[in-house]
Design a protein that fits this description.
- The protein is an alpha/beta fold.
- It has a single domain, classed as Aldolase class I (TIM Barrel), CATH 3.20.20.
- The chain has helices spanning 19-28, 51-57, 78-84, 99-108, 154-167, 185-191, 200-204, 210-219; strands spanning 6-9, 33-39, 64-70, 88-91, 112-117, 135-139, 173-177, 195-198.
- The longest helix has 14 residues, at 154-167.
- The chain is globular and about 45 Å long.
- The mean pLDDT is 97.
- Bound molecules: D-xylitol-5-phosphate and zinc ion.
- Residues 10, 35, 37, 68, 177, 197 line the site of zinc ion.
């Protein structure tokens, strides 16, 4: 099994009428992380869940809660998501006036820090922060909705980022998020991503066989 690759299923594609059992099912199916998409209807044109839901999900699993904040302003909510049980808190630099301040707010809560780049956002937006963070989330769709088509142009950016991390001798994970399926997951890995987020592929392919779909993404 390819141990270096982690699979982080996005619960945005789960059945929201039974999120608790869906999270438990993902753990049983071999998910490494649980990707939780938080949207505020302001930073992105969609509205999902907040800290209260995460608080209710927390006791159901020990799996890492990989929380993707598509909200702005973001600083006022860092503490709430940390207290609710987030393990990794990823934000968009466009959602804060001071990226360093937001990074430090997350670190103060002893959580891992992720920064997310939208498909058109350049690496230079985050280059100076690489030594302070744990993860870069490369969006391969415009943030806001599951089930969109993978944007292959982000693979070049992923390769550049991987080289930069290597040059700087840093230990920063590269997570790719959006439209990942059985055909493009290998391209994402080859480009340098070591964490794959997937919602619709994991929940919909093979009649929703979570275990099988997670395994295929990990192995392909
Ligand atoms: C989109 C979210 C993604 C999305 C992934 O804004 O950040 O995590 O839910 O879902 P799929 O895999 O269906 O593109
Ligand atoms: Zn996401």
């Amino acid at each position: 099994m390819n141990n270096s690759i982690k699979i982080s299923p996005s619960i945005l594609s789960a059945d929201f009428s039974k999120l608790g059992s869906e999270v438990v099912a993902l753990e049983k199916a071999g998910a490494d992380y649980i990707h939780i998409d938080v949207m505020d209807g302001h930073f992105v044109p969609n509205l999902t869940i907040g800290p209260e839901v995460i608080k209710k999900l927390r006791p159901l699993t020990k799996k890492t809660f990989d929380v993707h904040l598509m909200i702005s302003p973001v600083d006022n909510f860092i503490k709430d998501f940390a207290k609710a049980g987030a393990d990794i808190i990823t934000f968009h630099p466009e959602a804060t006036k001071n990226t360093s301040k937001t990074i430090n707010l997350i670190k103060k809560e002893n959580k891992k820090v992720g920064i997310s780049l939208k498909p058109n956002s350049k690496i230079n937006l985050i280059e100076n922060y690489l030594s302070e963070i744990d993860l870069v989330l490369i969006m391969s769709v415009e943030p806001g909705f599951g089930g969109q088509k993978f944007i292959p142009e982000v693979l070049e950016k992923t390769k550049l980022l991987k080289d930069l991390i290597r040059q700087k001798k840093l230990k920063v994970d590269i997570e790719i998020d959006g439209g990942i399926n059985f055909e493009n997951c290998n391209l994402a890995k080859k480009a340098g991503a070591n964490i794959l987020v997937s919602g619709s592929t994991i929940f919909k392919e093979n009649n929703g066989d979570l275990k099988r779909n997670i395994e295929i993404l990990r192995k392909n």
